[in-house]
Structure formats: C-alpha cells, structure tokens
Design a protein that fits this description.
Layout (H helix, E strand, L loop, with lengths): L1 H32 L5 H6 L8 H9 L3 H7 L6 H9 L6 H24 L14 H9 L1
C-alpha cells in the first residue's frame, strides 16, 4: 500500500517531466527507424556534442566500458543527469546549477578535442553532406 502511494505521489509531482522524457525517447526511436541517428548531423552534416552517445550507452549496457568510452567518454553522465533532472526540486539549486555548468563545460571540451582530432571517426565536419546544404544547393 505504501509503495502504491509513493508512485502515485511521484507521478503527480513528476508527470510533466516523465511525459517529456518518454516523448523524447519515442521521437528518438522514430528517427532511428527512419535512419536518422542524429538530427543535427542529418540537417547540417556536422556532428553534435553528443555524437556517439547512443552507441556508448549500448556498449556500456553490455559491459563494454572501454568501447563505450571510445564512442563518447561522457556516457556515464547520463544516469546521474537523469536522476538530478527528476529530483531537481528536492536538491539544492546551487548543486543542480553547478552540475549543469560542469557537464556543459565537459561536453564542450570533449567536443572541441574530438572535432580537432583528425583520427576521430565519430565526430565529423562535413557540411556538404547535410540535408540543409543539399536542399539549398538544389534550389539556389
């Protein structure tokens, strides 16, 4: 009885957050089904800062942590980020903001390092392969 009451209260206080997370997951699966693995890369031809994250999480879920790290070294941040997102109202604001700033800085740093590494096969800069470039070059 207590568990049911807890989940009912949890749903009531986090309904919007849970619906948002579920909607993002459904949209991501739909894009994957259409062959679009990254909407930013699909549109621009330039990898995003999270490029390789899906493959990294899949590798980590199978216990292949070194391979996961090669796809994206910040794969481990997703679990604590989700927990902080869901419980952000119960955590000190300073902690939530500090975590966000640190994670954002880490993503930018990793992205820049990977973008400048010519041997990185995950992050690419190929604007001519983006849908926007192909669309506008066809009509202009």
């Amino acid at each position: 009885m207590k568990i049911h009451k807890y989940w009912k209260e949890f749903w009531k206080s986090h309904k919007g957050d849970l619906i948002a997370v579920f909607t993002i997951a459904v949209l991501y699966v739909a894009m994957e089904a259409c062959g679009i693995t990254c909407p930013i890369r699909f549109l621009t031809g330039i990898s995003c800062a999270g490029c390789g994250m899906s493959r990294a999480v899949l590798c980590a879920s199978h216990g292949h942590f070194s391979q996961a790290c090669s796809y994206h070294p910040l794969f481990w941040v997703l679990a604590p980020a989700l927990m902080i997102f869901l419980f952000r109202k119960k955590l000190p604001r300073f902690f939530v903001k500090a975590f966000l700033v640190i994670v954002l800085a880490a993503f930018i740093l990793v992205y820049l390092i990977r973008m400048l590494d010519p041997n990185d096969s995950i992050v690419v800069f190929a604007p001519r392969e983006g849908a926007l470039y192909r669309f506008f070059s066809r009509f202009m």
